[in-house]
Amino acid sequence: xxxxxxxxxxxxxxxxxxxxxxxxxxxxxxxxxxxxxxxxxxxxxxxxxxxxxxxxxxxxxxxxxxxxxxxxxxxxxxxxxxxxxxxxxxxxxxxxxxxxxxxxxxxxxxxxxxxxxxxxxxxxxxxxxxxxxxxxxxxxxxxxxxxxxxxxxxxxxxxxxxxxxxxxxxxxxxxxxxxxxxxxxxxxxxxxxxxxxxxxxxxxxxxxxxxxxxxxxxxxxxxxxxxxxxxxxxxxxxxxxxxxxxxxxxxxxxxxxxxxxxxxxxxxxxxxxxxxxxxxxxxxxxxxxxxxxxxxxx
Length: 298
Description:
GO molecular function: DNA-binding transcription factor activity; sequence-specific DNA binding
Strand order of the largest sheet: 2-8-4-7-9-10
Number of strands: 10
Keywords: DNA-binding, Transcription, Transcription regulation
Protein name: Transcriptional regulator, AraC family
CATH architecture of the largest domain: Sandwich
Number of domains: 2
Order of helices and strands: EEEEEEEEHHEHHEHHHHHHH
CATH topology of the largest domain: Jelly Rolls
Organism: Neolewinella agarilytica
Largest sheet: 6 strands, antiparallel
CATH class of the largest domain: Mainly Beta
Low-confidence stretches: 32-36
Shape: globular
InterPro entries: Homeodomain-like_sf, HTH_AraC, HTH_AraC-typ_CS, RmlC-like_jellyroll, RmlC_Cupin_sf, Tscrpt_reg_AraC-type_HTH
Oligomer: single chain
């Protein structure tokens, strides 16, 4: 199994004297393996990909972008990296900041209401297009060359511009949104690791509760609080998201994808997939291929 299907906690460590982290990759093509690919963190993440085309995989949402991407990802929303050696983009800039950036008191000021609302909307993932992507993405790239104070002020202004922009799409990627207290990451990582290693098999609540060192009733309450879903619903969503990856990346039959994703029958898989995505697996694969063909240069 590809271990990168496990959402891994990423530790975000800003540089000394900074309240947020800025990373710029002038040549993303050399980043052959960005590990962990499938990860989450309590910080929000603003990513600008200049040029190129690739895949968005944010929470339960899977789609493709072309001619670059500007995306804001909410706290604890698992996602894959957006670039690799096949993306063909010119540069990538990543900014990660806390949920109370730049401070809780500052964020509560009336003037920051729009930014505060933006950060709340970002819990489902926001993809920006048009002039917003071009202009604000270009400004985001400037952060790497500025002194700390200028960098802070510019980022706040960029967020304000994103807050008032109408050129965005909500990815509705809340299927895997996590609400984990800081002290609970290790426990949830143990649970998530167990799910990742055993999702193809039948998994009882007694089994998974034991991994968390909890009784079944206590585990059910804990899991619903963290994920917003029952364990059974979350497990099925996990299997569906994994099947989306197989449908997009491999040449397996629909039946093979169903069993490889942990479903006991093709009919069960078809029903669960249609309920989760609004499409049958066959329709999803067909639409995905049309999208990919549309992204290719003429």
